[in-house]
Amino acid sequence: MNHSGFRLRLRLSMLGAAALAFVLPVTAQNFNIQERTLKNGMKVLVQEDPSIPNVALYTFFRVGSRNEHEGITGLSHFFEHMMFNGAKKYGPGQFDKAMEGAGGNNNAYTTNDLTVYQDWFPNSQLELIFDLESDRVQNLAFDPKIVESERQVVYSERRLSVDNNNFGLLDEQLEAAATMAHPYHWSVIGWPSDIEKWTLDDLKTYFAKGYSPSNATMVVVGDVKADKVFRLAEKYMEPIPAHDPPPPVRTVEPKQLGERRVAVHKFAQLPIVEIGYHVPQAQGPDYYTLELLQALLTTGESSRLYRSLVDQQQLAIRVHSGHDASIDPHLFTFTVQPRQGVAPEKAEQALYAEVDKLKSSVVDEHELQKAKNQVISSYYRSLRSINRRANVIGRYEVLFGDYHKLANVEQLYDKVTAADIQRAAKEYFDVNNRTVATLIPTAEEATDKNSSNAAEEKQ
Amino acid sequence: MKHHLLSWILSAVLVTAMSATALAQTTPPAQVFQLPAFQHVKQPNGLTLLLLEKHELPLVSIDLAFRSGSVSDPQGKEGVASMTASLLRKGTATRSSEQVSADLDFIGMQYDARVDQDSTHLSADFLKKDLDSAVALLGDVVLHPTFPDAEVKKKIAQQQDSIRAAKDNAGQVLQLYFMKFLYGDHPYGRPADGDERSLANITREDIASFYHDHYTPGNTVIAVSGDFDSAAMQAKISQVFGSWSGKAPAAKPVPGLKTVSGKRVLLVDKPDATQTYFMIGNIGITDTNSDRGPIDVVNTLYGGRFTSLFNTELRIKSGYSYGAFSFFQEMHSAGPFIMYTFTKNATTEPAIDKSFEVLGRLHKDGFTADELASAKTYINGSLPPQYETTPQLAHTMTDLELSGITREQFNQNLVNLQRTTQADSHRMIETYFPNQDFVMVLIGKASEIQTIAAKYAPNVATKKISDPGF
To answer: How many CB pairs below 8 Å do chains A and B form together?
Structure first.
């Protein structure tokens, strides 16, 4: 019943990004991860932790919306759904029924880069979970009736998270305008016409490309013995043949040569401004510097943008920033919701004024230390549950290239200097590298004639 | 996500609901979940302190709760309790608002203030090494807030805009409309965070007066979980909160409510909606209801998990919706029972019909013994992760204390839940799940769904989403 906690941006990659935003090791030995690579190429990572009698088992497939193309946008996310709809041993509905009946639970999420399946269950059910997972990876069924029904479910999810969510809608427009050539151009959930029209053949081709154990990493955290996990992985996952990985994504986004602006006119009470700047990928330069820039600008009520825009000038009700750890270069975004009666441009200019201060003068050591303390404490929070830890370990392995890098993260944050902050602010937060999307509220009367709904009904 | 919303709703509900669970009858789990023992200390000034050490990570979580919530708001000034809680950090006798924020952020502390109908919760989460400064900060905002007039005005204006912004997303405000329509003039019908008009009536004096009456040690429960030594923590809390005085406010009993009879429908027009969001329900149960274990088993099967009857019909079989859920929100007086889903404009009618059809099937068919066993196993397996982290444990301890439930009673409820028989389940369905009488609230595009709404009740109340209030 409280409004203050709701999310600014609704992106499918949000859950993962939130967990990964603050990764620092407590001490290297706390991770104590054992690994085994199966003959088909699948890597299995295990962290034994008996603190609760449960297990988190995450499977990270290196396939996401960046592996799609026009006509099949959203298909990775659709597979996220189809993987629950029946295989050979466990038919339609049986996967969830068996798991829930055994005291387990599951979910999944898709990002631009990954499709991730999450199982949470009592440790006594480990073998059942392997049986369920191997069945769907090896023998997924493609029943045309179920495909049609799930298409509707996914479109309903799109209406929920994009079409009827102003933040989601604006973000989709921003991404598409900022990224012209690279597949980050389209949203993870996919364009509406693709959701309605992808074919059974599209599905089968795509499944064969992306969803093989050879293209996956499994992370198991909880009250298990690594030897037992490896034995079950060898029994259930190793016999599944390796496939060729999805073809490499060749397209590199060309350098942006000037500001781009997008407007969305729709019925709303309050406007929104979202601003995106191209920044490097997770394994590129400045990932940690950008995380600290985010903390300096928008984490907590002492952050520069909160103080200036929300508190002192009272131009906005909220301001948020962030960037996802991604395989290819992507965006650092700012989202501002102006107060009623404040012109979006005014809030936008106020934001630039604050960001420019980071370029013109060096942040003092106390403020930089504050930002470091914020990311370090949040990092500890990200290790609190076996679920979140499985996610952090897996994302480090697949997005940063090696889970061992977790051991160095604290030093990498420590190394970031005030000069680095200034250089990165100048380099990335440049007007020619900028795309701005603005949601401009229209009056109620205009809505019936000019609604997105009318467009949907015609399709 | 496959069913992100479901997990979100369930976790939100389970935090407030203490109705957790049991064992499967057929294959008892190796470990039966029991809430661990915690220390219960009554301070001389009336403050209740609850302590549970947990040393895996160098973190400490505090949940500081007051036994007063929005039902204590003066009539016409809904939002006073909420504004009071959120203004605590906006200036103290020795720190400006900006200084409080600077000090909180420098130690990377997470701090939040939330108000519901029955209570106020402040949460603080910080590193063990910062314990002294964190507890001092929490003490400062609780004991010495000054509520500067400029900050009060600013916060109220921001909250009014936050409500307007929330109304741009139907899913965020649907339950507020539902509560108002179901409870009417009952205190639970009043919005806990106020509305556009009620907030305008609130003055600094209202805030100061609410603070004076309700922020007293006898009205306060502090729960701490994490990496600390209990004796040292007790001394630390005494040092910071020991000289605090003031008497607890007179108890303000919230009247009970019987279920609403008849069929009542409210349609809120959101002209840009391409999807209709709706809730169907009636008055449910209190947080101390002795049947809440068996009720949890039945609701798990009805609308509480992915394979539930409701989600199976609205999502899995028909594709009408991304998700369909039901839950009992347990409150000090009877909270609501709610069925919630959403569907595109064109399938609004069959989706509502299907929702009533599954409610009819619940009453007609009930659940089999196998299904009950599956639900019990499911609930039991889901318990440990719900009481795994220190913020979860701190919040659980204050909730139990505020509801007057002991740990022994909590654990006993898990046993009762496990003993749910088929006869019990029939009794739960007849007693607690609505049948012919219901309240339904829809947010959607009225020009397309108005005639559909009229099918379900003799009179349909209507509102525009941009109208102030709920």
So the answer is: 260
Q: Is residue A252 part of a domain?
A: no
CB contact under 8 A, A96 and B307: yes
Q: What is the pLDDT of residues B261-270, one digit of tens each?
A: 999 999 999 9
CB-nearest to A163 from B106, B172, B274 is B274
Instruction: Tell me how far apart the alpha carbons of residues A126 and A228 are, in angstroms, rounded to a whole number.
Output: 9
Residue A56: which of A327, A383, A379, A380 has the closest Cα? A383
Indicate the number of domains in chain A. Answer: 2
The answer on pLDDT for B176 being more than 70 is yes
Domain of A359, CATH number, reads 3.30.830.10
Same domain, A35 and A155: yes
> Residue B327's beta-bridge partner residues?
B338
User: Nearest CA to A6 among B169, B58, B49?
Assistant: B169
A431 secondary structure, DSSP code:
G
Secondary structure element (H or E) that encloses residue A441, with its range: strand A434-442
ipTM: 0.92
pLDDT digits (tens, 9 = 90+) for B120-134: 999 999 999 999 999
pTM over 0.90: yes
Q: Residue A168 corresponds to which tokens in the numbers above? A: 């989601």
pLDDT over 90 for what percent of chain B?
A: 90
Instruction: Report yes or no on A9 lying in a domain.
Output: no
Flag whether A3 is in a domain: no
Domains identified in chain B, total number:
2
Phi, psi dihedrals of residue A218, rounded to the nearest 5°: -110, 135
Domain enclosing residue A231, as ranges: 14-236
Mutate to test the interface with B, among A9, A52, A115 (most CBs of B within 10 A): A52
Bigger pLDDT: A210 vs A426: A426
